[in-house]
Amino acid sequence: MFLLVAIPTVPFPLSCPTRQLPFLPQPQLLQISMRRKLAGDAPASASAGGGSAPSEADLAQLSTAISAGEDLGPFVRRAFACGRPEPLLSSLRAVARDRESEIEELCRAHFHDFIRAVDDLRSLLADAEVLKGSLSASHSALLSSSAPLLASLESFLAARALAGNLSSALASSHRCVRLLALAARANDHLQAGNHSLYLALRAVDAIDLNLASRPDPLPLPALRRMLLSLVPAVRVHAEREISREFADWMVSIRAASRHLGQVAIGRSAAARQRQEELRSKHRPLEESITLDDDGAGDLDDFAAATATSDGSDGAAAASFDLTQLYRAMHIHQTLALGERFKKYYLENRKLQLTSDFDVIAATPFLESHQVFFAQIAGFFIVEDRVFRTGGGLTSRVDVDALWEAALGKMISVLEDNFSRMQTANHLLLITDYAALLAATMRRYSYPVGMLLDVLAKHRDKYHDLLLADCRRQVAEALAADKFDQMLMRKEYEYSMNVLAFGIQSSDITPAFPYVAPFSCTVPDICRIVRSFIEDSVSFMAHGGGGDTYAAVKKYLGRILSEVVNASIQKLVDSGSGLSVSQAMQVAANMSIMERACEFFTRHAAQLCGVPLRAVERGRRDFPLRKSRDAAEALLLRLLCSKVDEFMRQSDGVNWIADDPPAGGNEYANEVTIYLETLTSTAQQILPLPVLRRVLVAVLVHISERIIALFLNDSVKRFSASAVIGIDTDLKMFESFAENMSSLFLDSHQDSAASEMKSALVEPRQLVNLLMSNSPENFLNPVIREKSYNKLDYKKVAIISEKFRDTSESYFSTFGTRGARQNPKKKSLDTLIKRLREAS
């Protein structure tokens, strides 16, 4: 039995054109749709009325879009945008009518299927009612059986909630306990002192991390508020305490730096002294070892000792504690204030360095220069340690900037004080300490070239001051000397005054008391020059720069020429009332000074480390030659004055005596005795070459004085007896010269005898001519060249005139007797006549 149900016709929505109809396959629907669309095209176009009908292409596109279920929005927008939506609406209405007709046809074709479907639905509804009742009964049974389980579940859920609350409470308690333990630990570290500040900050950071990292707040608001307020307070307290400790360290390190600098400079001075001692030990080895000697072992020992000394000198000057600085830096880094602390440290050190410069402001630089240099040295030794171990607290640029500022200040202070100094010892003292500072700083890799350049720049001024001081000392020594031979009673006096300067004439120690061939001026000047050499070497070696030996040799030449030579020459030129013995002592001193000059050169070479072999090869002339020649000239001048004094007694000579004086004239005896006495003293102190030159010059002067006696205007004429007396005088002088020449034969002075005899040759030739029986032989060139080559024509003419007048008076008593004329007189007349014609 079939149930007929009227199914109302419900139009499909236009927005869902592609919805599949029930009980109809999709291809059949598409065919029906296409057929209805083609059938409805004409009415749609006709219903458009008088509007402008759309084109075939537009209608085809619209149909295609509707069939494909595409969005009709673009068509609608375009129609309304054109202002003519009526064609579109009419097309859509036509499509709707076509679809309604399709639905009706579909319903007519499949209404039996619809009826069967409704029957199936009704049977399905009955089954659903049965199932519903079954489910209700099952539900009731389930409820009755699950009631105890639900009660147990509720109890379990309550217990689990309680356990969660207890766990949360325990976790919160543990958290609070841990925070309180951290707070107690931080408190203990704070009470322990600044050395535990870092641990306190670690505990505080742990508290802060616990409070900030947990999403749930602390269950105790009071505790949380307390901790949040105390954490910043602890950090501020730590910063304040470590800043105070750092300020105390800055004060203490300043005092420690001064001591540290003094110790470091003292170590440098000790190292320099050890090097000089090793060098002094090396000098005899250097002099004794040649290329053929087996002295390599000694030199190797010396090199090893030098290396050992250098290694020990390279140790740190002193230890100092930087723990407080490192702690302050670490605490500031923990507080995230590391960069600020670096700037703070650098600024405070700059201020401290500036205040260190003011050390010399209150006291004279001579008194405060050691403290000034020691403070700067200690400051930069500390900075070097901080740079190497501070973990980036300072950089090389910062340290170099501080050093450049200190170097500029030291250079300006040195130049200012050097320009005002007038004492060489003060300048040397400051230069030496500055050189030790440079040596100390060089060991810590600080550049010190500019500082050494300033010291070298004042080298000439230092030596000028030193020369002025030595000039004053030499002048005082010469003024205080009485120019007597120096007496030494003890061996230490001999060692101190003779051996110390290498001026001994023999290596054998003399018996004491010992009378030296020089006066006290010689060792005094030697001490002055030796001190000058040592001061010069000290300045040049430690602060002068360049070739030390060349510079010292240059300044040694200056002191010998400008000071010693000039002072002695000034003394000699002024005379100063010196006697002959004193002048002789001055000349003897000059001969000793010649040996002393060799010692000066060797001493300078030894102090400069130059081999003596090189010094021997480069030996120069005697630098005191001018003063030596002046001393000899003074001695000769005084001797000649003394001889003149004796020869003035020649006024008592009887020039027209009938008989010659027995034993010669008195002046000749006195001159001879005086010269013999003088020579006995002179040969003990004067070197033989000097004595020879002096004696020859004195004899030449005597020779000139004898010729001057004949030429004297007060002597109008003289007799043959007077000539015989002068001949006797000459024989005395010649005998003295012969005796003196024997002194020089042992000293390889073979020409001494002939030289001393030739000093008296002119008066001897004159006397021989006057005593000759044929004076006219003087006119014979051969005879004159052989026997009278020293005589002058004019002098011979004048003297012959005086001698002829006396001859005429002598022979006039025989003129009346008609006796034969004296041939000597005739020869003399011929000589005089020929000389007159020649003139």
TrEMBL record:
An example Gene Ontology biological process: pollen germination
Domain Exocyst complex component EXOC6/Sec15 N-terminal: 92-265
Domain Exocyst complex subunit EXOC6/Sec15 C-terminal: 451-802
Domain of life of the native organism: Eukaryota
A cellular-component GO term for this protein: cytosol
Positions of region (Disordered): 274-294
InterPro entries for this protein: EXOC6/Sec15, EXOC6/Sec15_C, EXOC6/Sec15_C_dom1, EXOC6_Sec15_N, EXOC6PINT-1/Sec15/Tip20_C_dom2
Keywords on record: Exocytosis, Transport
Biased composition (Basic and acidic residues): 274-286
Gene3D superfamilies in UniProt: Dsl1p vesicle tethering complex, Tip20p subunit, domain D (1.20.58.670), Exocyst complex subunit Sec15 C-terminal domain, N-terminal subdomain (1.10.357.30)
Function statement: Component of the exocyst complex involved in the docking of exocytic vesicles with fusion sites on the plasma membrane.
Family recorded in the similarity comment: Belongs to the SEC15 family.
Name by which UniProt lists this protein: Exocyst complex component
Provenance organism: Aegilops tauschii subsp. strangulata (Goatgrass)
